[in-house]
Amino acid sequence: MTPLLTIIVLILVAIAIWQMTKIFELSQIKTDNSQIANDKDNKYNGYLMFGFLIFIYALTIFSFWKYSKVLLPEAASEHGEEYDSLMLVSFIIIFFVQTLTQGLLHYFAFKYRGEKGRKALFFADNDRLEFIWTIIPVIVLSGLILWGLYAWTNIMDINDEDDPITIELYAQQFSWTARYAGDDNVLGDANVRMIDIDNANILGIDMADPNAADDVIVREIHLPVGRKVNFKMRSQDVLHSAYMPHFRAQMNCVPGMITQFSFTPTITTAEMRQKPDVVDKVKGINKQRAERAAKGEDNTDPWEFDYILLCNKICGKSHYNMQMKIIVETEEEYNKWMAEQKSFGESMASVQ
Amino acid sequence: MSVTAHAHVEDHSDDHGHHHKETFVTKYIFSEDHKMISKQYLVTGLIMGFIGIAMSILFRMQLAWPGEAFPLFEAVLGKWAPGGVMDADVYLALVTIHGTIMVFFVLTAGLSGTFSNLLIPLQIGARDMASGFMNMVSYWLFFLASVIIVISLFVESGPAAAGWTVYPPLSALPMAQPGSGLGMTLWLVAMAIFIASSLLGSLNYIVTVINLRTKGMSMTRLPLTIWALFVTAIIGVISFPVLFAAALLLIMDRSFGTSFFLSDIFIQGEVLHYQGGSPVLYEHLFWFLGHPEVYIVILPAMGIVSEIMAVNARKPIFGYRAMIASILAIAFLSTIVWGHHMFISGMNPFLGSVFTFTTLLIAIPSAVKAFNWITTLWKGNLQLNPAMLFSIGMVSTFISGGLTGIILGDSTLDINVHDTYFVVAHFHLVMGISAIYGFFAGVYHWFPKMYGRMMNKNLGYVHFWITAICSYGVFFPMHFVGMAGVPRRYYENTAFPMFDDLADVQILMTVFAIIAALVQLVFCYNFIKSMFYGKKAEQNPWQATSLEWTTPVEHIHGNWPGAIPEVHRWAYDYSKTHENGEYIIPGQDYVPQTIPLQKDEEELQH
């Protein structure tokens, strides 16, 4: 009902505007009908330009005040901290330039609005000015490029130092599966041509590969805090993208090749749930959910914060609901969880 | 002597139209006259724009009120909205076709096709395009492509739905999604024809600008519109064939069992035979066009805005040569930055570093352009016609949208905002809205040239101000949605409780989008009404210097009734004065390009 009402209101607003312009037009017939801006038009639109500048600033302030709470919480990974700082610095530069240039643009549009008899200044070029506004972006961008490239090289340098855990993320329409490399920390070979659904070999693991037996296949990722994780991504059908926004991590999953990403989680799920902004966010969302529950709607169970893996590359009908939970916990909790899991070898044995 | 020259030219122009009678078909349908072809492009582009925008309203409503039943959906989408609830597949189809139509059919053909055809001959002083026939074929191929893409909406299994980039394997395998059946075949056929159309048009524009400039019209006296359209055509010729290759290889993979882009696929319980191909290869080929494409879209808008700003500010464009240099720099860089769409595609991270470097470089010529436009306004005598408002609006959205490019172009920062709504907000502001503003500016400004009548300015003002507010209303908050981590192309966000608190932002954006779409009807009304009942235009309503305003209001084949005028100066002698402060032509603040240099007047080295 609400949407229908909204649409009706909008249509009425549109009709009102149309009628108003018509009246406006009719009242102007006697005066000037050249359809070229006259002094009056220049004046009104000049003032509107100034008003529009205020609108842009106000919209910016409003959005920050109202929507800052929806943003992602602080990064939960080691490289994420640097990511956040680079993002912050870039944003400060952007807002400075945005405020300045929008200010000048609209203020000039207001200040120099046309008047009969005013003489514009014939000002065709000025080498010094142009040099200044070429060189300033060059310097600022050089800084950003260098910092960005330094960070990028570090993030993308995926190696086996510091005893990382190796985990395969396996994507298919429309779910994720994870495979831990097990005690030897080496993933068994796999290829879609070896998939054998009837015998529960859903990832196409090569059963003859000795590294495969201790692999552990799970539907929920657990990570020990402070330990580096090397993810190897695979897809069995179309492109997917493994997006872990809280860790500032993302990599596409491409059929026919193995892609990789690596990060070190720094905050456990339990710690993250205690962070003030997360507490606020959860409280706000649960309040909304409670209100919807009161109206008898579905999907209103209270929510508890969790890290999440989303699919972020269009992959078909249920692309919007392709997810897996990620839990970051202490080393002991992780070891306990891992001990409960069945290895690939064990589960194959139980099938046969 | 001048009499004989005159007679010769007269004779030449007569060949074009006066001797043989024009029928309705040769005048309005298979016309070879560039002015008529430009109007054909404009009207086709507007109709496609109407379809594209209507689609965006449908999926915006789904995003704001997920899963809600709307009678509108059932009426428009039929079986794809059972009970008025939009189906997830058709949601993807809508975003795909919206993107395709807006990028290619509206902003490439509608914008560059309309204004290249109208302005190139008129502003360089030519009787028509180098090849009128090729020009006609170019339009009709575009028309055919438009018809095919519209027909694909009515296919049983639905239109293409793999996103406007149609990445394989999703687009290659009909079992991966229903839209990848006949719908995708039609999409590829339409694009192939579209590319042929675009190439014919572009080659024609390039040849015309190089060969048919009138006497005295050196390259450095060309209006910036021509520079922009000329360079746009060059990038089109360089990059569109690569998309053609990509489309062709995709057709082979789909229909003839080759494996250019496919490998190791297990779908619906069986392994497919494809081996050795790579979807990443397709991404490279697609973006080798795809990135220059965004400049193909924005450069004509930049040229139009530069021209209109100078005319309405009654000032020369600031830094004419720097503007040309930045167009050339942007064009060059645009062909070596495509990889910034692929930072996390699985390509070698070293390539990511290279593309970060080239991408951030492109910010420099863009910044130069923005500052030059702002300086053009400084100390002007701004005539705030609707075209001028849209030009100022274009600079505003180009800056707002362009600045966030610094984040997306940085491979590190791209990791977490890639494919989120942050990207959607960025490109809609910087190329979508900006190019549309350039398009509207051009229509308001050259409407008198096209139809011999004026558009209503008050309706123009209403159109501009509501559109301007709504565009920011839609796309500014959208950055926050992206920063919250919401992926694009999600049918609904309700599967993730962490996105629940964004519900009210979604509604706000949708309401702004609906108002913005409705106010475009004001433009349609104004456009159609002015075409027939608008006030008759004078020959040079905006008091501009460029050559198109020296032609008579009534269109004639061959543009000028007599000899083609000779050009003696650049196109931006607005408010030029003698040393004593008097205008060059007393009482008139502009000097048309056809006026010879006056006594003691200096031609500045611009």
TrEMBL record, chain A:
GO terms for cellular component: plasma membrane. Its EC number is 7.1.1.9. One of its GO terms (molecular function) is cytochrome-c oxidase activity. Its main location: membrane. Binds a copper A center. Its cofactor is Cu cation. It is a multi-pass membrane protein. The keyword Nucleotidyltransferase does not apply. It holds the Pfam family COX2_TM. The keyword Cell inner membrane does not apply. It catalyses: 4 Fe(II)-[cytochrome c] + O2 + 8 H(+)(in) = 4 Fe(III)-[cytochrome c] + 2 H2O + 4 H(+)(out). The chain crosses the membrane at residues 6-24, 44-65, 85-110, 131-152. GO terms for biological process: ATP synthesis coupled electron transport. Residues 64-159 form the Cytochrome oxidase subunit II transmembrane region profile domain. Subunits I and II form the functional core of the enzyme complex. Electrons originating in cytochrome c are transferred via heme a and Cu(A) to the binuclear center formed by heme a3 and Cu(B). Belongs to the cytochrome c oxidase subunit 2 family. This is Cytochrome c oxidase subunit 2. It comes from Arenibacter nanhaiticus. The lineage of its organism: Bacteria, Pseudomonadati, Bacteroidota, Flavobacteriia, Flavobacteriales.
TrEMBL record, chain B:
It comes from the Bacteria. One of its GO terms (molecular function) is cytochrome-c oxidase activity. InterPro entries: Cyt_c_oxase-like_su1_dom, Cyt_c_oxase-like_su1_sf, Cyt_C_Oxase_1, Cyt_c_Oxase_su1_BS. Residues 24-578 form the Cytochrome oxidase subunit I profile domain. PROSITE patterns: COX1, COX1_CUB. It is found in: Membrane. Gene3D superfamilies: Cytochrome c oxidase-like, subunit I domain. Keywords: Electron transport, Heme, Iron, Membrane, Metal-binding, Respiratory chain, Transmembrane, Transmembrane helix, Transport. It is a multi-pass membrane protein. The chain crosses the membrane at residues 41-63, 90-120, 141-167, 187-212, 224-252, 294-311, 318-338, 350-375, 387-409, 421-447, 459-485, 505-528. Pfam families: COX1. GO terms for cellular component: membrane. Its main location: membrane. GO terms for biological process: aerobic respiration; electron transport coupled proton transport; respiratory electron transport chain. PANTHER family: CYTOCHROME C OXIDASE SUBUNIT 1. Belongs to the heme-copper respiratory oxidase family. This is Cytochrome c oxidase subunit 1. It comes from Arenibacter nanhaiticus.
